[in-house]
Fold:
Amino acid sequence: MPFWPSPISTRDVAGSAVRPGWPTLMDGRTWWTEDRPDDGGRTTIVCRAADGTRRDLLPAPWCARTRVHEYGGRPYAVTPEGEVVFANLQDQRLYLLPENGEPKPVTPPGCRYADPLVRDGQVWCVREHHAEDGKVTRAVVSVPLDGGEIREWATGCDFYASPTISPDGRHLAYVCWDHPRMPWDGTELRVIRLSDGDSWKVRGSVTESVLAPAWKDDTRLYLVSDSSGWWNLYEIGVHGDGARALHPAEEEFTLPPWRLGGMPYAILADGRLAVLHGRGDLRLGLLDPASGTLTDVEAPYSGWDADLATDGTAVTGIAYAPTTPRSVVTVNPATGSHHPLAPTPSALPNPAYLPVPRPVRIGGPADQTAQISDTTHQDTQIGSTADQATRIASTTHQDRRSGDTIHQDARIGDTADQDVHAFLYPPHTEASPQSGPPPYVVFVHGGPTAHADTALDLEKAFLTSRGIGVLDLNYGGSTGYGRAYRDRLKGQWGLVDVHDTIAAARWLAEQGLADPARIAVRGGSAGGWTVMAACCSSDVFAGGVSYYGVSALAPLAAHTHDFESRYVEWLVGPEDPQVYAAREPLALVDGATRPMLLLQGLDDPVVPPEQSAAFADALSERGVPCTYLAFEGESHGFRRTETRAAALAAELAFYQQIFI
Structure:
């Protein structure tokens, strides 16, 4: 089919990936990072002065990005004097950048650093070391800015996060966890007395995810815990005494820490907390910890990234909306006023071409109906009185490939909580009319412990402006809807996600929203796994697009990076050839009949390129149409403008071929 003409080009989309992150606010100045696709995917640090002037602090080839956990995290910190300490991508060393000078190294080569905090002339951070034999170790360390000896404070655990020093400088708090858990499964909050090195556990277990500690005063801490089934805020004594929920709610007050360094709340000078909370997208609110009163800040944004900064009076974060790109925004809690600090780097297309999503809920296995809300913020149908009841439910669904009945045990709320959440982006209609329902593409996010949000995404607008609708799916296992919802995927990867993806496509057709013969599916990383598995398991899709997707489990577990090296055990189970063969796309490839497009970066340390290449070869051997595109110099997530433009052009050409 000929697509409608659109003012949104591949170059527009590729260049729109300028993305701010990691805000810092101090003495009237604001710092943040910016990813620059037009500059080879480089990340720089920007500083905005009190008078509104802004400047880039790092010229090329400097790149402020850490590779700790491979996904990285906060790569810099600001000293009280306004100097910047940052991790440089090329050698992963920490450098000190004076106000008007050149970066100077403060760590020797050979290690990676993330989540830095400057205090008393030292950088407190997480250090990661990769030995020649492949063993990876981590520690919480302090790095003297004057070039003194680096000191280890916490060692022995597999992972560390969130080092923070008490106001009096006597104690260090941090989060840690061990394989095979991920940080959203179970962590511990620990404290070290710096005078003698004595340490103890404050909170956490193998089944409780404790995150984002911050000191209220010298003897008490704030933290986020999911002990209730939702990531809520708590106050607790330094020895674990007097734990108190600040605002119990069936909402999330943070997102999963795929990257180190995010802080989903900020402590104001008057004692209140600026917090992020919600289901799906997180909205900004002000919480009085004494009374538990939570008041939302009225602002024209549908969500915020889980990282806030404050100087005690103002709050800065990264906000977004369906027609507003991610922007650095400062809010005055006293007046409620807000204003963006980082203007859109390039002109946006006509707002008429920017789709506004509608939250939808697609019924679970027993009910493939759905409810649609016109709001662009929270799904107003959730949070009912019935949600207060929690029970243990065992649901089953048939694995059509193996014939086995799969049991799925999870703590869930009322019947509506068994629904699958998604965002519907109808195609643009102000163009030449066409007969019958339009084509659609089901977007499947990566992670899989992640979620789709409502931020402006020109990839979606690129399609909807051409008459192709988009359904952005938060399949079972996604975050933003409580622990029970994300635990649906425990042991069920390749089943629940695939079932929900296929069910979403069928629902689109049954509701008359999409042409049943013209529904495609696309996803990246774990989403690519789901795309390949769904195309091997069902003929509901006209074709599939996988970006750096997983096709085989044993090679992934053997060769992926350390952070996720045991993740498959949670997602599927211990290595079992029979189970793996019933789940992984490469073993199910005989069921694939529809065309596929596979895109892969050749420098990917998370999903090795062999994963996509092997699946492409298997499709070709069976005569299934397949295009495999590999990109030199790209990692897990394409960063360069030319790569992103080429990949999107190939994707559009693919849809033109299958939507005939």
